[in-house]
C-alpha cells in the first residue's frame, strides 16, 4: 500500500468507517460483485434441485424441466462464477496496487451495472419461458431477442471490467518500471485476458447469427458454425473458472498454512501455458459432429492434452509447498506432511478438498477428450458428473473457502470461530452431497443414461428402470447441496452484517527465498498475445473456412417449449 493509500485508510479509520484490509471504495466494488454471486448461487442451486426432483418423479413438473435447467446453468455457470471471479480479482488488485485511480474505478462500476442489466434481462426471459435454450443456447434453438440482448450486455460489461483491470495494471507498470507486478496481479490480468479473447467467439455467434435470427433478419442459421464458435468460447470458459481457483491455491493457501509460494516463476509460466493451450482445443467437444475434418479434430485433441502440462506444474508446486511446510513443522516420511495441515481452518480445508476432487475430474477430462472413449460417454450423464466435480466442486469449494475470509476483509469484519466451524460444516456437506450426486451421474452415464433429458415415457422400460436408483441418489445429493448453499448464504450474511468489526487478514504468501528469479520475458504481453492468436489462427482458420465454404442450407429457428 502506497503513502496516499495509507493516509486515506487512516482518514477512514478516524471516521469510524469499517476498516477492510484494502481501501473502502475498492472493497465496495469487490463486495458488490460478491453479493450478486451469492444471490446467483442460491437461485441456481434451487433451480438445480427442482429439475432433479422433477426428473426423478418426486415432484410434479410445476415449472418446465428445461426451463429450470436453463436457469440452473445460467445462474451457476455464468452469473455466480463470473461475478465472484471479478470481485475476487478486484480485491487481489487492490491488495497488490493499493488505491484504484478514478478513471478505471468509474469504468469498473459501469461494467458492474451493465452486467447487472444483462443478467436481469436474461433472467426475466428465462422466467417468462421465452428463452428455454439451456446455458449453451445451441442453434437452432431460438430465444426471444431480449435474451440475446441481455447476453450482449453481460459480456460487454465484463469487457469493461477487464479494461478497468488492464488500466490498473498498466498504471502500476508505468509507475514501477522494471519491477514485476505482484504474482496475484499478474494471474488476475492473465485470467481476464483469457476471458476477453474467449468471449470473442460467443459474441460472434450471438451478434451475427442468433440475434439476427431471433429478430427475423435472417431465415436460417448455420448450426455447425454456431456450435464451433460456442466451443471456441466454451472450453477456455472452463479455465476462466479454474484460474481464479488456481490463484487461491498458489498464493492464498500457502499463507494460510504458514508456508510460502514454491516458485513465482513456475506459477507465472503455468498461467502463460493455460493462456496458450486453452484456445485451440474446442473441437474435442465436437468429436461426434459431422462437417469438421477429422484431421483438425485430431490436431485439437493433441493440443488438448498439452493442457496437462500446466496442470501437472500446478499440482507439483502445490504439493511441494505442502511438503516444505510440513517438514518445517517436523513432519517425517514421504507423507508425514499430511498430518501437519490445518484441517480445522475453512480457508484451507475447502480449497484443499476442491484440489482432491480435481484429481478424478482431470482424469475424466482426459477421457472426454479421447476420441474413442468420448464415443462411450458422449451426451450421457457422465459428462454432467464430470462438469460437477470440476466446476461444481474444485472451483466452487475454493470459492466458498475464499469467501469466508474475503467477505470479512471487504466488510471490515472478522471471521469468528463459530463461523469458521459453520464453514467447515458447509464445505463438508457440499463435498458429501456432490460426491453422491456426481458418482451417480458418472455410473449411470456409463450405462447410457442421457443428459439433458426430462421425464420421458421410456423411463418405464425395464432397461431404463435400472437408472432410477441413480436418479434417487442424485436427488439426495442435490438436497444436501441445497442445504449447504443455505448454510453458505447465512454465513455470508453473518460475516457481512453480524460478525465483530475488525481487520481480517488478507492472506497472500511470499515466495520461497531459494526460488529461481522470474524471467523478464514473462512480462512481454505483446509476445504472448501474438502467440495466442497465431495458435488460434492455426487451429481454426481452415476448419471455419470449410464450414462457411461448404455450408449446408441452414436451419430455421426452433421454439420447442
UniProtKB/TrEMBL annotation:
Pfam families: COX1 (PF00115). The chain crosses the membrane at residues 30-54, 74-94, 106-126, 146-166, 186-210, 230-253, 265-283, 295-322, 348-367, 387-410, 422-441, 468-493, 527-548. One of its GO terms (biological process) is aerobic respiration. Belongs to the heme-copper respiratory oxidase family. One of its GO terms (molecular function) is oxidoreductase activity. It is found in: Membrane. Residues 11-493 form the Cytochrome oxidase subunit I profile domain. It is an enzyme of class 1 (oxidoreductase). GO terms for cellular component: membrane. This is Cytochrome c oxidase subunit 1. Keywords: Electron transport, Heme, Iron, Membrane, Metal-binding, Oxidoreductase, Respiratory chain, Transmembrane, Transmembrane helix, Transport. It is a multi-pass membrane protein. InterPro entries: Ba3-like_Oxidase_I, Cyt_c_oxase-like_su1_dom, Cyt_c_oxase-like_su1_sf, Cyt_C_Oxase_1, Cyt_c_Oxase_su1_BS.
Amino acid at each position: 500500500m502506497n503513502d496516499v493509500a495509507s493516509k486515506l485508510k487512516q482518514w477512514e479509520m478516524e471516521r469510524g468507517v469499517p476498516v477492510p484490509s484494502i481501501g473502502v471504495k475498492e472493497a465496495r466494488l469487490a463486495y458488490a460483485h460478491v453479493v450478486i454471486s451469492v444471490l446467483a448461487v442460491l437461485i441456481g442451486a434451487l433451480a438445480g434441485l427442482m429439475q432433479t426432483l422433477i426428473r426423478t418423479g418426486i415432484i410434479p413438473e410445476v415449472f418446465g424441466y428445461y426451463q429450470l435447467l436453463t436457469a440452473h446453468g445460467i445462474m451457476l455457470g455464468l452469473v455466480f462464477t463470473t461475478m465472484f471471479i471479478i470481485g475476487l480479482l478486484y480485491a487481489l488488485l487492490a491488495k497488490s496496487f493499493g488505491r484504484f485511480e478514478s478513471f478505471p474505478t468509474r469504468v469498473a462500476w459501469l461494467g458492474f451495472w451493465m452486467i447487472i442489466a444483462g443478467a436481469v434481462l436474461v433472467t426475466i426471459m428465462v422466467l417468462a419461458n421465452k428463452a428455454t435454450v439451456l446455458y449453451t443456447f445451441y442453434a437452432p434453438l431460438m430465444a426471444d431477442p431480449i435474451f440475446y440482448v441481455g447476453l450482449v450486455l453481460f459480456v460487454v460489461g465484463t469487457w469493461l471490467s477487464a479494461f478497468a483491470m488492464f488500466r490498473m495494471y498498466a498504471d502500476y507498470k508505468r509507475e514501477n518500471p522494471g519491477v514485476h507486478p505482484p504474482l496475484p496481479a499478474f494471474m488476475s490480468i492473465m485470467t481476464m485476458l483469457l476471458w476477453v479473447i474467449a468471449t470473442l467467439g460467443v459474441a460472434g455467434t450471438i451478434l451475427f447469427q442468433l440475434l439476427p435470427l431471433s429478430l427475423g433478419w435472417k431465415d436460417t442459421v448455420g448450426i455447425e458454425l454456431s456450435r464451433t464458435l460456442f466451443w471456441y468460447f466454451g472450453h477456455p470458459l472452463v479455465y476462466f473458472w479454474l484460474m481464479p481457483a488456481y490463484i487461491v491455491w498458489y498464493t492464498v493457501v500457502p499463507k494460510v498454512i504458514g508456508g510460502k509460494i514454491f516458485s513465482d516463476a513456475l506459477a507465472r509460466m503455468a498461467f502463460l501455458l493455460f493462456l496458450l493451450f486453452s484456445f485451440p482445443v474446442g473441437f474435442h467437444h465436437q468429436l461426434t459432429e459431422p462437417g469438421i475434418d477429422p484431421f483438425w479434430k485430431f490436431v485439437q485433441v493433441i493440443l488438448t492434452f498439452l493442457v496437462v502440462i500446466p496442470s501437472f506444474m500446478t499440482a507439483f508446486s502445490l504439493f511441494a509447498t505442502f511438503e516444505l511446510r510440513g517438514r518445517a513443522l517436523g513432519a517425517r516420511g514421504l507423507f508425514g506432511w499430511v498430518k501437519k495441515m490445518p484441517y480445522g481452518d475453512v480457508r484451507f480445508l475447502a480449497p484443499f478438498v476442491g484440489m482432491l476432487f480435481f484429481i478424478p475430474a482431470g482424469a475424466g477430462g482426459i477421457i472426454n477428450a479421447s476420441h474413442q472413449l468420448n464415443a462411450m460417454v458422449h451426451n450421457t450423464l457422465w459428462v454432467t458428473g464430470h462438469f460437477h466435480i470440476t466446476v461444481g466442486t474444485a472451483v466452487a469449494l475454493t470459492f466458498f473457502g475464499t469467501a469466508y475470509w474475503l467477505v470479512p476483509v471487504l466488510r471490515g469484519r472478522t471471521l469468528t470461530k463459530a463461523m469458521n466451524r459453520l464453514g467447515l460444516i458447509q464445505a463438508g456437506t457440499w463435498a458429501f452431497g456432490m460426491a453422491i450426486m456426481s458418482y451417480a451421474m458418472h455410473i449411470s452415464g456409463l450405462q447410457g443414461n442421457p443428459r439433458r433429458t426430462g421425464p420421458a415415457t421410456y423411463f418405464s422400460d425395464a432397461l431404463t428402470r435400472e437408472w432410477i436408483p441413480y436418479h434417487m441418489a442424485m436427488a439426495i445429493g442435490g438436497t444436501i447441496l441445497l442445504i449447504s448453499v443455505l448454510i453458505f448464504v447465512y454465513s455470508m450474511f453473518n460475516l457481512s452484517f453480524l460478525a465483530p468489526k475488525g481487520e481480517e487478514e488478507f492472506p497472500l504468501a511470499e515466495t520461497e527465498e531459494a526460488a529461481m528469479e522470474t524471467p523478464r520475458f514473462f512480462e512481454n504481453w505483446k509476445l504472448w498475445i501474438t502467440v495466442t492468436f497465431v495458435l488460434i489462427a492455426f487451429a481454426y482458420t481452415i476448419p471455419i473456412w470449410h464450414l462457411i465454404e461448404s455450408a449446408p442450407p441452414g436451419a430455421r429457428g426452433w421454439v420447442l417449449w
